[in-house]
Amino acid sequence: MLFFWLLALVLGIACLAHRRTAPFPALGLVAGFLLLMGFFSHAPGWLLLLLWLGWLATALPLALPELRRRWLSAPLFAWFQRVLPPMSETEREAIEAGTVWWDGELFSGRPDWRKLLDSPRPQLTEEEQAFLDGPTEELCAMVSDWEIGQQLDLPATAWTHIKQHGFFALIIPKEYGGKGFSAFAHSQVAMKLATRSADLASTVIVPNSLGPAELLLHYGTDQQRRHYLPRLASGEDIPCFALTGPLAGSDAGAMPDLGIVCKGQWQGEEVIGLRLTWEKRYITLGPVATLLGLAFKAYDPEHLLGDEEDLGISLALVPTDIPGVEIGRRHLPLGAAFMNGPNSGKDVFVPLDFVIGGQAMLGKGWMMLMNCLSVGRSISLPAAATGLAKFTSLVTGQYTRIREQFNVPLAAFEGVQEALARIAGNAWLMDSARILTASAVDQGEKPSVLSAILKYHLTELGRECIGHAMDVHGGKGIILGPNNYLGRAWQGAPISITVEGANILSRNLMIFGQGAIRSHPFVLREMALASREDRHQALKEFDQLLLKHIGFAVGNAASSLLLGLSLGRIGDAPGDNLSRPYFRALDRLAAAFALLADSSMLLLGGELKRRERLSARLGDALSHLYLASAALKRYHDRDYPEHLQSLVRWALEESLGKAESALDGLLDNFPNAIAGGLLRVLVFPLGRRHPGRSDALDAEVAGVIGRDRGDPALEELLTGCYRPQSADDPVGALQVAIDQIGRSRPLLQKLQAALKSGQLQPAPGEPLVDAALAAGLLDAEDARQVRAVEAARRRVIDVDDFAKDELHLREGGIR
């Protein structure tokens, strides 16, 4: 009987969850259920009394405002103020930066799929497509990863091409001489370059993400924009941005770099300016930059500008030819050749109008950086990582068709198929997230939380893809030389993990730590009320907000349980027969995530900030819900094509499995075991539903990258990838070999059948083709064709070797 009472309670509250109402109608409905069950049941009177008393104890404090404020809201408000973790100004500005988009829907526990599916599908303009097909394709053909590594620089022709065709000006509006491309076009260009060379991509993407141009567009004065943007667009100025220093990496607030407001001489006149002293490192394009964007802390000890002395983090543009600027030395990040190095300056005087945005923007540098960084991390690094995944899909899929062991192509081995599936599945999932997020930026969003998700997960998945590719290629991948198309990408894979927010930081502190406050429907407003000085009015507003928060939390608890018990079959869902169950699964997990996020913040308070592994698991769940949403959005935008179904299924099973695993791990490690047990009943009432991909699904997806050129699923996977066709190019040689094998397949099958039947028995050491020619199984033209196939295979399989005199270091090492 107690079970039926509890079920009635859950059903009543579920009405709240699915009708998005205030809590009172739901509580009234629950009371009605209790009354009805009490009337028709034979439950003992004492149990009915206890249940009614429990209901009254819940309903009365909520129903009577004065009672609710005194006994519920006021104590909770006081508790909330006590447990609220201390927040630095830089943390506050990071949290308030950017906008909330689909992450807010996931945090609500009730995502509105129409909002996502109705958002516009990104499209390239004719001009953008022509730039990809023309200058971008041409630039890729100009470079070789091996030669870049040997010279430790791009070839001069590539630098000239970059400047002439405006690769540094993709985001600069046309009125200033730039391209004025969309975020999606910017992402497409960066991705294609990354499929050719990470060094090439890095050279181009940094000025188009976090750099002077982005900052000038959003915060520069009209005079600064008119002066600098045309010079940046034409390549007359090469920019870099100096943020990280030896003593301040992730904790930018600890930077010791100073700008002291003072009077000084500038072009023969005494003006108010800044005396700058700094030391920076890891600065991309730094060794060749002519314009240095600089982050520093500004101080006004003489009060030349006002009463405030500590002005805060500020940003300025410093021409590198000013006396005192030390620039030009290089770092070698794991041997990568893109320009990167330290710079410094001591007592370098610049006028105040060198501050980006002028005097009015002094002290607002961290806010400026956070807003611009969210856009850059949404585009540049995700595009580069996706390019790497597409490239490994291309070369690994082709190599496993060409390379044989035991007379069987590598692609036929199940162990290899597992690696191929992860490469192909990851590449398609990463591409889906990249496209969706670039589209959000083009809609005017500055998705700070989603950009952290993309930065972390896509760079990690890119590193995973190159790792699997190296495993499959074996010795081919580890012998450096002109024929090795993987080695330098493998060497450089950790670089993207460390930049623009180290991945450990992003996962453990930023994704959920920032998202829980920024994207939650109520927490940011509650925090703002907790810091208000007018306590009486703040308490009244907190009381109203708390009422909505309670309804939100109870509704998500009911939704999670009800959807779990019903196996996700309640309510309407968009999509086709394949995607509809996945939409419902995401509804269930979004409700579960929202419940656990609320419960963790309620029970742990400020301690959650220090429980990084719990925060990381919540961040993982949110991330995989977003990646799964992106996959479904892409499938919808393509109008549910059948050829994508295996990739969609792989992406969703992978994402849902990892989301469930993250929530399961959170519950296993929940500090309060009793609360963790109760939450597990609500989240997984029938256990986990998505263990991950099956072996059969892996085999299907592995087969996609083993198909012939022109297959729709393969072309969808590789779209945007640079694909050279010449046999003189080590990547082009793969396609040449595939084509020759395809044309000669009947002859090759004929020889294999003759060997198997004993009809062909070459003498020890005798070439197979010679034996077949002598036996009359092949004529001269057939033999020539088979020899050409074997030569093409060897061109792919062979690795480089060098004479002793070709391998030497200059005396004393690198100079």
Automatic annotation (TrEMBL):
InterPro entries: Acyl-CoA_dehydrogenase, Acyl-CoA_Oxase/DH_mid-dom_sf, AcylCo_DH-like_C, AcylCo_DH/oxidase_C, AcylCoA_DH/ox_N, AcylCoA_DH/ox_N_sf, AcylCoA_DH/oxidase_NM_dom_sf, FadE_C
Residue ranges annotated for the Acyl-CoA dehydrogenase/oxidase C-terminal domain, each copy included: 363-508
CC cofactor: FAD
SUPFAM superfamilies per the UniProt record, alphabetical: Acyl-CoA dehydrogenase C-terminal domain-like, Acyl-CoA dehydrogenase NM domain-like
Enzyme class, first EC level, given as a word: oxidoreductase
Pathway: Lipid metabolism; fatty acid beta-oxidation
Annotated keywords: FAD, Flavoprotein, Membrane, Oxidoreductase, Transmembrane, Transmembrane helix
Reactions catalysed according to its record: a medium-chain 2,3-saturated fatty acyl-CoA + oxidized [electron-transfer flavoprotein] + H(+) = a medium-chain (2E)-enoyl-CoA + reduced [electron-transfer flavoprotein]; a long-chain 2,3-saturated fatty acyl-CoA + oxidized [electron-transfer flavoprotein] + H(+) = a long-chain (2E)-enoyl-CoA + reduced [electron-transfer flavoprotein]
Residue ranges of domain Acyl-CoA dehydrogenase/oxidase N-terminal in the record: 137-236
Transmembrane parts of this sequence: 43-64
Tree of life domain: Bacteria
Pfam families: ACDH_C (PF09317), Acyl-CoA_dh_1 (PF00441), Acyl-CoA_dh_N (PF02771)
Enzyme Commission (EC) number: 1.3.8.7, 1.3.8.8
Domain Acyl-CoA dehydrogenase C-terminal bacterial-type: 517-802
Protein family according to the UniProt entry: Belongs to the acyl-CoA dehydrogenase family.
Cited NCBIfam families: PRK09463.1 (NF007000), PRK13026.1 (NF009586)
PANTHER family: ACYL-COENZYME A DEHYDROGENASE, MEDIUM-CHAIN SPECIFIC ACYL-COA DEHYDROGENASE, MITOCHONDRIAL-RELATED
Name of the protein in its database record: Acyl-coenzyme A dehydrogenase
